[in-house]
Amino acid sequence: MRFTTLSFLLFFAILYLAYWAASGRLRLHLILIGSIIFYAAWSIPFALHFFGIVGLNYGFVRLMFRAKAKAGDGESPGQSGLAGKWMGLAIALNIANLFLFKYFYLFLTILFDLTGSPIFQHKIFNEWLYATTGNNAIILPLAISFYTFQLIAYVVDVHRGQIAEDTGPLKFFVFILFFPQLVAGPIMRHSDFFHQLNAIRPNEEYIRRGLYLLLTGLIKKVVIADNCIAPVQAVFAAPGEYDAVSNLAAIFGFAARVYCDFSGYTDVARGLGYLLGLKLPENFRAPYMSDSARDLWQRWHITLATWLRDYIYIPMGGNRRGYWRSHLNLITTFTLGGLWHGANYTYIVWGFMHGIALSVERVYGDVRAKLNPESAASAAPEENPSGLRRMLAGLGRGTRMLIVFLIFCAGIIPFNSPDIYSAWEMTLQLFNFSGEGMRSKSNDFLLSMLAVTMLFNYIQFRREWRLPSPRTQYALLFVLGFITMALIGRFAPGGFDYIYFQF
């Protein structure tokens, strides 16, 4: 079920009424049942597979707690190492599951590119698979990337001692299967969620926040993102047929689409969570207002960036094993982050590009600090700067924001291209100043959607907005709801999956 369908609206309305009519642990059972129905509505066989993976992970968690308890009691010095082995088996299970369904075809592609042997062609494998199992391809299960990362984080945190006790299977299953964030995040941690399950109560402020997030998320997704899909993909499918201006407009249009689609999903997910009395972590914080590559990844897909830092970058050594090793760790981490997004060379290039950007920025900052150690102090803002100084400071930040946004847009080329060749063709076409190729009729529309997207970023960026009284907020929510329904009724192009469903 997509959040933008009437079937989901009916599903959530029934669950919502039953949820708040219940009390105590019964609410957790209702969330679990609702999450199972939500996932099974897509595929019952994959739902059974998903529940089996979650059950096996919980079994490993129980074994880890048992081994750690025995080691703590002094029963056996080897029990502590046994907990680590159980963690390793759990991680291996999750990675193997992800590899089989998401990366096996990429593995075949790499072998074919290296050897040229036809035995590694997808068609040959699919024919064998059909003759053996009756299935003509490996299908990617919904949400596999997101739930894999949550499961790995949980078992690692148990081993690190950051999760002190086994909270039982009910809370564990609710944590992994919680349907608002299940399909496309945000990627939750134990610390984000479990403490809220002990005292779920109706919260009027949560209701207002939830309704606001739901309405703005629907505008982002249905009105902006969905209307950008067709004109953007037309250019990305054949970049050589369009002129440089149309290629650039398509890149800007995709920037509008991917932000409004993904942050719109997160808004809806967080809104549903608030309505159920649960706060989900923020995943976007005005990323297009970033003034550095580091700042970008503190604002864009925040839960993924922190996951990569805590479970890949730091375990690889972080910045503790020498200066240049830290840069290698950084680039490797973001390259793997690119691979997480999809089983294609294009995503690897995209992750590598962002890793290089972060590394270059760090080197530049270090060199600048060495050459001018007083620059940081001289750059500190004055208590009462003049109007000219304020304007120049704003222009400086604006220039940095533009550069970071253009770096982000450069990454869009491989990210949204079907293959490396198309990405290269679009790159060349951007520098085709002869004007060859046709002009898309959607350029002005895509640029206007980017402008609206920047407005949403500015609203997020200005976090100190003064809120009106609760009564006025309800009136504004009513007006926003009316506007949202009018916009959706007028501009909804049809139902489209959220872009991160494919990851």
Question: Care to describe what's here?
Answer:
The structure is a single chain. The chain is an all-alpha fold. It has two domains: 6-207, no CATH class; 223-370 and 389-502, no CATH class. Helices cover 71% and strands 0% of the residues. Helix 1 (6-21) runs antiparallel to helix 2, helix 3 (44-72) packs antiparallel against helix 4 and helix 4 packs antiparallel against helix 6. The radius of gyration is 24 Å and the shape is globular.
Number of domains: 2
The fraction of residues assigned to DSSP E strands is under 5%
Output the radius of gyration.
24 Å
Mean pLDDT: 86
Total strands: the figure is 0
End-to-end Cα distance: 17 Å
Shape: globular
How many helices? 20
Poorly predicted spans: none
SSE arrangement, N to C: HHHHHHHHHHHHHHHHHHHH
Instruction: Report the structural category.
Output: mainly alpha
The biggest sheet amounts to: none
Give the gist of this structure:
With 503 residues, the protein is mainly alpha-helical. It has 20 helices and no strands.
Task: Annotate the secondary structure layout.
Layout: H1 6-21, H2 25-40, H3 44-72, H4 78-115, H5 122-133, H6 144-160, H7 169-177, H8 179-182, H9 190-193, H10 204-237, H11 244-275, H12 293-296, H13 302-313, H14 323-341, H15 345-371, H16 375-378, H17 387-416, H18 420-430, H19 443-461, H20 470-491
Helix pairs in contact: 1-2, 2-7, 3-4, 3-6, 4-6, 10-11, 10-19, 10-20, 11-17, 11-19, 13-14, 14-15, 15-17
List keywords for this structure.
mainly alpha; 20 helices; 503 residues; globular
